[in-house]
Design brief:
single chain; Helix Hairpins; 118 residues; mainly alpha
């Protein structure tokens, strides 16, 4: 299942798909141990599907962009949430680095400003 298809699912559908994928993985491992599994690539594919579903669920819990449920995609609402602390810290660091040269006073101690004696 592609990540775009996973993101298009609602929360309830995600839960159902997750249960189904976990069941498929369990069955594939059981068949592998009893030497009945013919398509060995189904195990990593199922694991990746589970990872994609869990990733989208985590994105929705964290409120990341692009991870809204299908019902919210149609609404035209502005994001009024407050920025995360790490983002605030990065913005402040950028602002500190961009200080104009005129605003920085030159403070050199008198001992360092004098020429060395020979």
């Amino acid at each position: 299942m592609d990540i775009d298809k996973v993101r298009a699912l609602t929360d309830g559908e995600l839960e159902d798909q997750l249960k189904e994928a976990k069941q498929d993985l369990w069955q594939a491992r059981f068949q592998l141990n009893t030497r009945q599994l013919k398509d060995y690539s189904s195990i990593p594919q199922t694991r990746r599907t589970i990872a994609r579903i869990l990733t989208v669920q985590r994105e929705r819990l964290d409120g990341l962009e692009g991870a809204q449920p299908a019902a919210k995609l149609n609404e035209d609402t502005e994001d009024t949430s407050t920025p995360k602390p790490r983002r605030i810290a990065r913005i402040l660091q950028r602002e500190r680095r961009v200080e104009p040269a005129e605003a920085v006073e030159e403070t050199v101690p008198a001992e360092l400003d004098a020429e060395p004696e020979a």
